[in-house]
Amino acid sequence: MAEMQANRRTLWRRIVKNRWTYLFLLPGIAFMILFCYVPMYGLTLAFKDFKISAGILGSPWSDPIYKNFVTMIGQDAFWRAFFNTFRMGFWYIVTGFPAPILLAFLLNELRGRRYKKVLQTVYTFPNFLSWVIIGGLMTTLFSSDGFVNMIIRALGGEAYGFLTDTSLIRPMLYATNVWKGAGWSAILYLAAMAGISPELYEAAEVDGANRFHKMLYITWPGIKPTAVILLILAFGGIMNNGFDQILNMVNPVVQDAAENIDTYIYRKTFKDKPNYGFSTAMGLSKSVINFVFLLAANKIAKLLGEGGVM
Amino acid sequence: MKKQLFSALLAAILAASCLAGCSGEGQESSTASSSAQSSGAAGESQAAETGGEPDYSEHLSFEVFSIDGSEDMMDYPLVAEACEKFNMEFTIQLVAWDNWGDVTRTLAATDSFPEVVAWYDLNYPEYVEWAQEGVFKALPDDLSAYPNLQALTEKYTIFEKLKVDGKLYAFPKIKNNNPYNEYDSYMFAYRRDWAEAMGLDYAPVQDLTWDEFREFLQKVKDEDPGQLGDRLVPFDLENGANSWCGMARKWNPYISGYELVDGKYVWGAPDETSMDAILEFKDMYDTGMLAADSYTDANNAGKERFMAGRSAVIYSNLGPSILLDTAKQMQANIPGFEEEDLGLFTIKMDDGKYYVSQMDEWWGAFAFDDSCRDEVMERWLAVGDWLLEDEQIEKYAYGVPEQDWTKAADGTVTLNYTAEESASGGEKDYITNQRSFQKFFILEGLDVFLEGNPNTSSYIINDLFKTNMETWATNPNYTPSNYDINYFSATEKDSFASVISNTSDNFIQAVLSDDPEGTWNQFIEENIDQANRACEEINAEFCE
Amino acid sequence: MAERKRKLHGIEPFDIVNVCILTLLMLVVLIPFYFTVVQSFMTQQEYIMNSTTLWPKDPTLGNYRDIFVASTMLRSFGNSVFYTVTGVAFSMFLTTTLAYGLSKKDYPGRALFQNMVVFTMYFGGGLIPFFLLIKQLGMIGTRWSIVIPTALSVFNMIILRNFFEQLPPDLDEAATLDGASPLRIFWQIDLPLVKPAIATLVLFYAVGRWNEWFYASLFLGDARLWPVQLELRQILWSSTSFASEVPAEVGRPSFSEGIKAAAVMVTMLPIMMVYPFLQKYFVKGVMIGAIKS
Fold first, then answer.
1. Spatial distance between the Cα atoms of A197 and A189, rounded to a whole number of angstroms
2. Which residues in chain B have their CB less than 8 angstroms from residue C245's CB?
3. What is the CA radius of gyration of chain A?
4. What pLDDT, on a 0 to 100 scale, did the predictor assign at position A278?
5. Which residues share a beta bridge with B264?
6. Which H helix or E strand runs over B344?
7. Rounded to whole angstroms, how far apart are CA atoms B170 and B367?
8. Judging by DSSP bridges, how do beta strands B116-119 and B60-66 pair with one another?
9. Mean pLDDT value of segment B91-95
10. What angle do CA B339, B342, B345 make, to 5 degrees?
11. At residue C290, does pLDDT exceed 70?
């Protein structure tokens, strides 16, 4: 009893001691409770048959309760899309994650300060192009009379059907994803690099370190925490890649090769009335899978002695 | 210990906030349903009372949910006149074209519509659900106070089909209200100037067999009358390859639907005539008659190529106003192109018939939120009725009478403005823009068929459109829209709509494949079970 | 002169290779982008006849004119500037305070708050309860519905928290011993040390805000409050043939692909004008000055 009281007293003392920390947390946490947690009762829709007149809370539970979850999974095509999502998600990470780091390294090593700024700016341009535009660009570049085939023909080659080759569509998706996002994401790493003290580099130079030593032993440790966080978050988004991109870049000939869960559901339910119960159930399933990946990646990072997201 | 304490605290906060949110939401929905009931009852009694002279003495102001409506809308003469005559004012709650579906559905699900809803792209199963769930207020059973509206309900079958539990919850907007709207207006338009350059003496509406049509394409390809080289596309379809399957209905009218055979519905795609269509398209594609990259085409890409002068023939939706617009744009794009250089083909298939489908009568609708006041509903219906009077239709087509146009004793209309002035951005652009007001009630096409309309061209309307429709009527293979199947069998619509929605993509894959039979058969095999289940359901519902 | 000599002296083969690689990458970025620029100056007629033109034969400003012909465009630019400025300010307030609080160690409930925040990245109630909440807060149809409810990006917050966590802990202790209040430490010591991250997040939030249109279309029925992106989308839609039952300006049909491309330029320009100002925070040596003082 006395021990508990003592515990309580120390706890209270620690809370008082950290009162400023709570003050800092207050606006953000209050915001999250209001705008994220209050509406969360909507998740119950995954287990309900939504009726407008009854509202979310008054709508009846599904019978059986998991009905919304099984509507789709009976079909072979769903599982094909499901596993394709993982496969593509994996490659999205393998290509999309290192690209901005490499770019930031190269930029960081560039001598001319002005040229560096120009390049930095230019690399962010593609981020402003929406996938609709990029989809159109793909046709301009790769169609049978497009820019690339024009060059091939000028060099004496034969035009190639880039857009009808089912084995090319996925690599093209990964490549355009890097093309669009690498320069933009590199900004984060450049910010991390900017925070590294020049004294460290100067000291290393005195010790006779060459450029690659400095990259490896100063720059990389400086950005590693950021890289780890972004990698963990990338794993936490493995199910979420490329919906908009795929819709805008595929054509009917190659679309089966680039089908993921989102595009599959979109195509299946496109012409029907929306089923809120079903879409909530699908969203929830995806979230759970994403969350599990996040936790796993987070755990591994911590086991390796890195910081995590939580 | 400390952890538990904190979790408890947080849980309490969460629970409290959740409760706050929940109770609010609960209230929301309960008031919604109760008001739905009460207003429904009030609506009926009110409608019964107002049989005599309409009374507009009370000034009404309300909101209208719409994708149309510019800010200066209230200044358009026709709108201003309506507001004054009916002693009302309204503001537009504008919804972006782009996000129409999400916004409309969210407002419906949260009971947040304003009183009047101008509804686009009405989705039937959704409409039924919303009607049953009390989102909308039913229209009065007796529309005799609005004779023009009532006339529409008697003329078109759609009104009967749209009734939910015997009541109309939305007033559908009729598409292309012209005398020839029985047939779907997907037609073949061709370049008469090119035909002439190749020494062919073709009529404005030229009748061809399918084989003659193919010969024409080959001749275009060989002779290249426009001197376009590799830019030439002999034959284009409205949305490129995405329109192939739609045209395949000339071989198999039920390729993307269900066909009634011996009193039972069966899936249409497996019929062997589908393969005829695929092979025909494959042959056209392989011989360079179709655009090489048309499988990447977006909406209207094929039509745009035709209008830019790259193709000799287009298969596209060419209703009267679209046909007029097409001719106008081609004159702007192609040097020396005259209206008369545009022609139509009527094409007989191998059995000597023109394959035509019925036109869908409707697209959008207007409706009233369950919170809508009875007097607002009555006023709105009265406005719709008034707009359908000939006098108002003329204002809609030509602008302000006496000021913008005059009518001679013999009925000839003279316009006092140029096309530039009335176009968007011009001095009198209200003449064009105020049409969006009419679109709240009737969708399009009213102006085109006014007798002697100086805004239209007699060549386009009579020599082309009308002649085409009359030719078809001589020997049609007519496929009526099956509203019951295509729109109104709501039980498990999604399970068979999804099979159908894949048809077009698989058609394209088969055409482009080295093994069209194999590709198509695989599609059939993969989906036949689901389609058969759907047929069982349909048959249980409609064929017992 | 001596400076220059030293620089030249230090050039290694790697530098040359590096410049070549980066220049090549710039071309890879610019060539497709260039086609978008060209497209924005093209007429529909020319685009359809030959989309892979290196420069339009008859360049036109028509696509840009189609965007700005609506007198409402300037107003929506103004709206967007308002949403972006107030939105970024509010977002940064929430993000920096929350990230700073979460970066602190050893206070009761830390793990709980961390998990609570990350949880919201994955689980949300969906559009309907969110809309009802905004409605009950009385924000529907007001500017605040755009500024407030979507202000916090957990992704950005985690990035910033990570930067705070890397600050040397003895810094705070030293300052506390000097008698500085926690608020002062936050504002005058810790915040300046993560300037590059702050600059990055300002950029990220600003671009996000500038491009926002979805919630605006959901919450704002009054077109006078619309941001520029929503207006652009509306113009684009009305330029596609589907929507244009109303004929366009006679003789010059509007060209949706060209308007799309022009819209990219119009959207990018303001951001590109802000970017160089933020870039100066990426220059090395921000940290050192701060620590010394």
1. 15
2. 321, 435, 439, 444
3. 25
4. 85
5. B261
6. strand B342-348
7. 4
8. parallel
9. 91
10. 150
11. no
Tell me if residue B88 falls in helix, strand or coil: strand
Q: Considering chain B, what is the average pLDDT of its residues?
A: 84
Cα separation, A143 vs A160, in Å, equals 9
DSSP helix/strand/coil, B13 = helix
Each as own residue / partner, the long-range contacts of residues B453-456 (CB below 8 Å, 24 or more positions apart, any chain) are B453/B397, B453/B413, B454/B413, B454/B414, B454/B415, B455/B397, B455/B398, B455/B415, B456/B320, B456/B324
* pTM of the entire predicted model: 0.87
CATH code for residues C64-292:
1.10.3720.10
Sign of the Cα torsion C29, C32, C34, C36 reads: negative
Residue A309 to chain C, least CA–CA distance (Å): 7
Are B425 and C69 inside 8 Å of each other by CB?
Answer: yes
CA angle B296, B302, B307 (to 5 degrees): 145
Q: Span B182-209, mean pLDDT?
A: 95
- Find the mean pLDDT for residues B464-484: 89
Helix (H) or strand (E) holding B174: strand B170-174
Average pLDDT over residues C73-100: 95
The CB-side HSE value for B42 (13 A sphere, CA atoms) comes to: 15
What is the spatial distance between Cα A275 and Cα B469, in angstroms, rounded to a whole number? 41
Work out the end-to-end distance of chain C between its first and last CA atoms, rounded to an integer number of angstroms: 32
Residue of B nearest to A3 (CA): B1
Give all domains of chain B, ordered by start, each with its CATH number: 56-181+358-450 (3.40.190.10), 185-239+300-346+457-478 (no CATH), 242-297+489-544 (no CATH)
Q: Is C233–B102 a contact, with Cβ atoms under 8 angstroms apart? A: no
Cβ-based neighbour number of residue C181 at 10 Å: 12
Domain locations in chain C as residue ranges: 2-60, 64-292
Q: What are chain A's domains?
A: 74-303 (1.10.3720.10)
Q: 3-state class of B378 per DSSP?
A: helix
C-beta atoms of B435 and C132 within 8 A: no
Q: Which two structure tokens, joined as six digits, stand for B530?
A: 């689901």
Tokens found for residue C30: 């610019």
d(CA C26, CA C31): 8
**Between C105 and B241, the higher pLDDT residue:** B241
Kindly report whether the peptide bond that precedes residue A221 is cis, defined as omega within 30 degrees of 0: no
Q: Helix or strand or coil: residue B260?
A: strand
> What residues form DSSP beta bridges with B345?
B188, B206
The C-alpha atoms of residue C271 and residue C277 are separated, in whole angstroms, by: 10
Angle B39-B42-B47 (CA atoms, 0-180°, nearest 5)?
125
Average pLDDT, chain C: 84
A250 close to A197: Cβ distance less than 8 angstroms:
no
Distances (CA, A) of A174 to A181, A251, A258: 11, 16, 11
pLDDT category, B523, cuts 50, 70, 90? very high
Residue type, C220: L
B-C Cβ pairs (cutoff 8 Å, strict): 126
Rounded distance, CA B231 to CA C49, Å? 7
pLDDT digits (tens, 9 = 90+) for A18-33: 889 999 999 999 999 9
8 Å CB contact between B303 and B236: yes
Q: What is the DSSP string of C155-196?
A: HHHHHHHHHHHTS-HHHHHHHHHTT--HHHIIIIIIHHHTHH
Polymer length in residues for chain B: 544
CB B234 within 8 A of CB B289: yes
8 A C-beta contact, residue B238 and residue B300? yes
Whether chain C has a CB inside 8 Å of the CB on A229: the answer is: yes
Q: Is B110 exposed, middle or buried (0-12, 13-18, 19+ CB in 10 A)?
A: buried
Of the partner residues B25, B112, B425, the one whose CB lies closest to the CB of residue C249? B425
pLDDT of residue A241: 86
Residue B433 confidence (pLDDT) above 90:
no
